[in-house]
Amino acid sequence: MKILGIETSCDETAASVVENGTTELAFVVASSKDFHEKTGGVVPEIAARKQVDFMIPVLDQVFKEVPKEEIDAIAVTQGPGLIGSLIVGIEAAKALALALDKPLVPINHLIAHFYANFISHNPADIKFPALVLVVSGGHTDLVLMHDHGDLQYLGGTLDDAAGEAFDKTARILDIASYLGGPQLSKLAATCKQNSVAGSLPRPLLNKDNYDFSFSGLKTAVKRLWAQNDFPVEEVACEFETAVVDVLVEKTIKAASDFSVQSILLGGGVSANTQLRSRLQLRAKELEIPLFLPELRLCGDNASTVASAAFYNFTPLSLEDFKRISPNPSLSITD
Ligand code: KG4
Ligand code: ZN
């Protein structure tokens, strides 16, 4: 089954075709990131307008690789995300579904992130129950996946998401004004000896739950940075280590509490080198297979949307089709 996925939750306009949930036949991503750098944050109206500009060229490119007549279904991100951006993707998907007379599958963006692993690995190797850590710019969630479509929310951030904390800290340290997580991480990797190691808090690390909190950490970075002339790479490394300490230990706690058979990582922050390597070490100690998405599939893309649709395929009635609309605040359990 060949599914066309469309993803427009924020500043990426993406379309992919994935066969049987795992084989990518087309992969196209356009981004309006450069247009948001000046303002230091995504401007929803600009993001939505760029979605309109990019949508047709992106689809044209995909249809050059896979003729539209070969497509069996269309999947689209329903939320969470920016309302204006989501509308563009949903309306394009609805129009295509009607024109091609194919089923439409609405997909939760957060759940789509899980499926980067089903493309990056042999799906048969991913055994349930699996524990999924989704870490992105807007979310940090721990989810127990009993099976496709059978999810149990365990916990998540009470305030800032991990990616958001990375981006805000990159701004505080004057590393980058917008989406500075990757640059902060690159700089942190250059730190050889750290005079500020252990000086930031590890929020909720020892609490007996699966929740996270990163907003206090950002304030602590601000205080540390203002205090003295510490080298920026040392502060960046201490910040990254504090975030990774909490993400890894909470994930490992949940994995052992629920005796899971696999651990999956997903979302933009899953590209973080320290997070990947330290989770790998801890999962190995526990002898739990860990699945990390290919770097290319960590961020927002439409292959994950198409894969999620294959594994969660439910044909819609015409009435339900008409009712599909963007849901900017969709949660994992909706
Ligand atoms: O999943 P994603 O592409 O978009 C959302 O759904 O939010 O995640 C984007 C987030 C941004 O906050 C970005 O700075 C962060 O992922 N990110 C990273 C790295 N690569 C992307 N954070 C830390 N280290 C990285 N290597
Ligand atoms: Zn995302």
Structural commentary:
The structure is a single chain. This protein has 334 residues and is an alpha/beta fold. The protein folds into 2 domains: 2-114 and 297-323, ATPase, nucleotide binding domain (Nucleotidyltransferase, domain 5); 128-288, ATPase, nucleotide binding domain (Nucleotidyltransferase, domain 5), CATH 3.30.420.40. It is 43% helix and 19% strand. The chain has 12 helices and 10 strands. The protein has helices spanning 33-36, 44-65, 83-100, 109-114, 116-120, 162-172, 181-188, 215-227, 232-257, 273-286, 303-311, 318-323, and strands spanning 2-7, 12-19, 23-31, 73-79, 104-108, 130-135, 140-147, 150-156, 262-266, 290-291. The chain has a 5-stranded mixed sheet with strand order 3-2-1-4-5, with helices on both faces. The protein has a 5-stranded mixed sheet with strand order 8-7-6-9-10. The mean pLDDT is 96. 5'-O-[(R)-(carboxyoxy)(hydroxy)phosphoryl]adenosine (KG4) binds next to helix 6 and helix 7.
